[in-house]
Amino acid sequence: MALARAFAESLVCPKCKTRLVYFEAEGSWLCAGDRLRFGMTDDVPVLLTDEAEVVSEDEVDRLLKRAKEQGLTSV
Question: Residue 45, CB half-sphere, CA atoms under 13 Å: how many?
Answer without folding.
Answer: 24
